[in-house]
Structure formats: structure tokens, C-alpha cells
Amino acid sequence: RVTMRRNTLRCVNGVCSEELAKCWQRAALCLETMELQVLDHPLVEHKLTILRDKNTSSSTFRELVTELVTLEAYEATRNIAVVDKPIETPVAPMIGKAIAKPRPIIVPVLRAGLGMLDGMTRMLPSAEVGFLGMKRDEENPTQQITYANRLPDDLTGRQCFLIDPMLATGGTLVAATHYLADRGAKDVTAVCIIAAPEGIKYVEENIDPSIDFKVVVCGVDEGLNDKSYIVPGLGDAGDRLYGVI
Ligand code: URA
What we know:
This protein has 245 residues and is an alpha/beta fold.
């Protein structure tokens, strides 16, 4: 399911920017069934442009990632489970809503995903946080190496939010989603900042269809270069957040 009707209409009316229109064209070309949400907001485009700029400092980069993720979290949590919660306002009793148990879990993929954690936890302070250390095998970019994990053994019934800024080849996202699914997760939302059409296609074709899976991104770029970096992208997200190590 492509959630793009509203955006397409806005583009037809000439309201959205040329870049956003291109973004949507790329998403539409590579997507058939997966649910992908591209944030369509001028503020997101503005912040993303500063983020991409190679002259932006690490501290500004980190701040912008937090702000963008906060905006993405609003969409990513649209279907979060809630229950009735009776309260009393100073004026009258009422039935409000509270996030249901078991608590949702946020899983940053180390290392770059850590840069998105603050934005997610600001919006979902009651969520638990797990960690998954996965990186692509540079010799073989679609293969993944898992080098760390700190996750509950049982994720049955948990809504999981995987955070990783760059959806490049899609290999890490598929491996990480299946890692959570192997522990019982059936509801996984990936929050990324930039995606490549190749990665979206790979994810769509390789994620176990029994998982309720969705991706939220701020932009869909042109494609990957021969080193599997997103073009134009923003470079190495981990290095830009934390420096070259
Ligand atoms: N990971 C990054 O940090 N950047 C890319 O462009 C692709 C993968």
C-alpha cells in the first residue's frame, strides 16, 4: 500500500517542491505493495537540505536528526495501540487514552541508529529501548554481520520501531526486521531518514510478508553508487554523527 494519494494531488496542483515530486515518483516506481510513507512537509525538506550539506557540523547534524525523527515519529506511531484511561480534569471526569501494554520497543541499529534515539524517545518516553549491532559486510553489501544485541527474548505482541538513518541496499533492514520477527515481533515500523529506490525494492521483495511492516522516511533519493552509498544522500551517517572512527 503506497500512502501517496494526498501528495500526488498536491504535486499535480503544483504546490509541492520539484524535489518532493521527484521523491514520490521514485517511491512510486519502486513500490508495489509495501507501506512506505514519505513525509511531505517543507520543514522536513528544509532540515534535510541542511543535513545533507557537507559543510554542516556534527553538532548541527545531530540536532537536525533529532528534529527530523521527532517529526517522523508522529507518523510512525499513527497506529500505536492505546487503551482507555479514566482521569479527572480539574473540571470533570473523562475517559482519555494511554499507550497500551506491553510497551512498544525502539531498536536503534548501531551505530548510526543511535543518533535517532533521542528524537524517538522524546515522542515515546514510555517505550523500552533495545539495541542491535548490525553492519553490512563491505565485501558483500547485501550480507549482514550481527556484532551485538540487547533485546528481550520474547517480542510477542510488542510494537517495534527500528531506527536506522540510511535505507541503502536494504540488507540491514531486512536482517534486523527478521531478527525481531525471530523473537516473535509481528509489527515492525522502520524509521529511516533517506532511502534509495534499490533498498526499498529489496526490502519489499525480501521482508517476510506475514510481518506487519511499514517504513517512514523523509526522502527517497536517486539511487546507490558503486560503493552502495545513497546518491546524493548525506554521506556516511555514522561518521557525520560521531566523526570518522
Ligand atoms: N550508510 C550510510 O551511512 N550512508 C549511505 O549513503 C549508505 C549507507
